[in-house]
User: What shape does this take?
Amino acid sequence: MIKKVIKIEHNGQAKDYVALSWFDMQKPNLSAVSEKEIFFIMKVKFTHLHENDVLVCEDGHRIQVKKSEDEIYVFEFKDHVDFARAAYEIGNRHQPVCIEDYKITVLDDISLSDIVLHLKDEDKVSVTKTQGYFRPNGKSHHAH
Assistant: This one.
């Protein structure tokens, strides 16, 4: 049986949980399976999920949202020009990004594959593909 989420509570209590990627937490329509193998669906307007939100189903079942690790790329730069150029190119793809001092972290996304290949060939750039918790700057994933 599929349960329907009717309400989202912030920082409530639950005895079940679901681990979601950063991208899944941004979706207005979501179907997933909890740790206790509860299938649920959710439609949300004008918001996205946060870690520790509690999804309340129509029958009262409560599921806490946990953040899962994502496949990410970490680019570390030795040169400010390469850093700025990469940030500009990634920004033109409208991808969520975490920018720090001479370091850019992005989700592994096919739309960035050409940029990743190019940066791997640069001597002054370190490219690492890893698993990690993605935390983009500001409201970097938006609609126009």
